[in-house]
Amino acid sequence: MANVMDVLRREDVQRIGIWGMGGVGKTTLVQNVNNKLSGSGSFSIVMWITVSNRYQETESELKKVQNLVARRLKLELPEESMETRTSQLHARLMMEKTFLLILDDVWNPIELDRVGIPEPQVHRGGKNTIDNKIF
Questions:
Q1: 3-state class of 130 per DSSP?
Q2: pLDDT tens digit string along 37-88?
């Protein structure tokens, strides 16, 4: 955990991945990171999202991830087009000074830009931590 916390404090790191076999403690690690950083002032918002090992890059699955992120942001997304939802989520995250997005139980690639998550180069205060099994 100390290594993850050190890496998250570095300015030159915007995205980290934590991976390994099932049962080695990845979820416990990111849960502890979430608990330590939530409300600490290190990030304006910390979001821990469990994606699921059944995630596939379909519109309905993308909407599920969008809804989970939006719920953490207290943002209501319309049931309109994916482009509208993505744009609204992106705009809302850009309003945050800093944010940490923890994606847990990721088994397949997720195109974060299709969800509405700003690229770290676009949002300098954003960081993504991905707990995955097979990347």
A1: strand
A2: 998 988 899 999 998 777 778 888 899 999 999 999 999 998 878 999 999 9
The total number of residues written for the chain in this structure = 135
Relative orientation angle of helices 2-9 and 26-37, to the nearest 10 degrees? 50
Quote the distance between the C-alpha of residue 129 and its chain's center: 6
**111 CB neighbour count, 10 Å cutoff:** 9
User: Strand locations in 22-81, DSSP E?
Assistant: 45-52
Q: Which of 23-37, 78-92, 112-126 has the lowest mean pLDDT?
A: 112-126
First to last CA, the chain: 20
Alpha carbons 14 and 129: distance in angstroms, whole number: 9
Q: Where in 53-125 does DSSP place strands (E)?
A: 99-106
